[in-house]
Every structure is written in structure tokens, then in C-alpha cells.
Write a structure and sequence with these properties.
38% of the residues lie in helices and 26% in strands. The protein has one domain: Rossmann fold (3-Layer(aba) Sandwich). It is globular. It contains 9 helices and 10 strands. The strands form 2 sheets. It has a 6-stranded mixed beta sheet with strand order 6-7-8-3-9-10, sandwiched between helices. It starts with a strand and ends with a helix. The chain is α/β, with parallel strands linked by helices. The model has no long low-confidence stretch (mean pLDDT 93). Helix 3 packs parallel to helix 5 and helix 5 packs parallel to helix 6. Strand 9 and strand 10 form a beta hairpin. It comes from Fructobacillus durionis. Belongs to the ABC transporter superfamily. GO terms for molecular function: ABC-type amino acid transporter activity; ATP binding; ATP hydrolysis activity.
Length: 245
Amino acid sequence: MSMIEFKDVEKYYGHFHALKDINLKIDAGETVVLIGPSGSGKSTLIRTVNGLEEIQEGQLIVDGYDLHDPKTDMNKIRKNVGMVFQHFNLYNNKSVLENIMLAPRLVLKRDEAENKKIAMELLERVGLADKADNMPSALSGGQKQRVAIARSLAMKPKCLLFDEPTSALDPEMVGGVLKVMREIAQDSAMTMLVVTHEMDFAKAVADRVIFMADGAILEDASTEEFFKAPKNERAKQFLSQVDSH
């Protein structure tokens, strides 16, 4: 069953054509990685999936809802579609534990004892149970990103979107975040759509790779096929540049 489906989607910023004729299906439980040069439309595409960016034409179906339909309640979508950003977006005036408990308390009206139990289990899962009472300012970038992931998981979403979650981190912080993401990807129930420059992560975790350039999808292939023998010339060029660094 499709969790996300783009049908003939177009997106513009004024005269700039940001997404061009996007047709893409992502099945429930699939891990799909979006790669491509900077400015190729990857982040714009992922941000349309939870309504942070609106599309101008076509259909975008997420969890059975048409996002282009004005009657669609975006808050319902966001309950089931979590997002992890490049820059964490934690509340600096709340402890790590409070950051994780806040949305389930307000949105899901989750029982407080259960909410705390789930939040602590998630902090354990991302290796930060000892930081529960710390403020975000006391954490490293990698730790903040792991808290942000735990916060998204606290809503028990069907789908998680990651928009370049490691690109703002120091190199030695990246491994811990990718390890947590790998573990989530192994959970067969979770659908993941990940924008990343981490090719080793894509090779290890993705079921499929989508290559984008200039707002269009130029290749959509299984991970093995894509990295062994990309068909698109632009994709070949991109991979040769990435491999040489």
C-alpha cells in the first residue's frame, strides 16, 4: 500500500519552477533516500509531504489524504508524518524530556505517566537517557539531533521525513545520528523518506534511491542498481564526484 504518492506534481516559487512533473510512489514500510546536487529540489519535495510547502498542480496523496484538497486537515497528516530538520528546532526553554513529551501531551492528549514512560524509553533508544533533565543548550549538535529524532518518534508516526539531518553536524557527531536512523529503518513498519549526502548510509539502509536535479526526478532505482550501474548521465557524474571526495 502506498504511504506517499505524487501524481504530476508541479511546484513554483513565482516564476521559478522548483518541482517538475513529479511522479513518485513510496510504499508503507519503505526506506527511500533522495540524493542529488544542491538546489535540485530534494528539500522542497520532502517539505511538501507534510504541507510545509504547497504544490500548485497535480495530486499529493499522503496516508490516504489529498494534500492539495483545501478540505484536508493538515494537523491530521502531521500526527502521522514526523519530520526531523537540519537544525533540530528544539525548545531551548524546556528540558530534553519536556521537548519529547510536549507534542504527545498537546496533540494526542496522552496520559502523563505513559507519556513520560514512552519519552524515557525513546531517550534510552537514542542513547541519551542520562540527559533527560538537561537543557538543549548543554547538548552537542549530534545529541540535539538524536533528541529531535526521539521527539518525532514520540508521536508514533507512520512515516518519518528527514531533511539533511546530519549536514549541520561536525563530522564526529554524524555517526551517532546515522546509527539511530539505521535502527529506525530496520523497523519494518516505519516509512522513511530521507534527504541526505551520506552515500554509505544510503547504500546500507535504503530500499530505493531517487536522484534529483533541476527540480526533476532523473532516476528512481533499487539501491543496488543505482550504485552499481546508474542509467542517467547526470547521476553517473554526481556519483563519480561524490566518490572522489
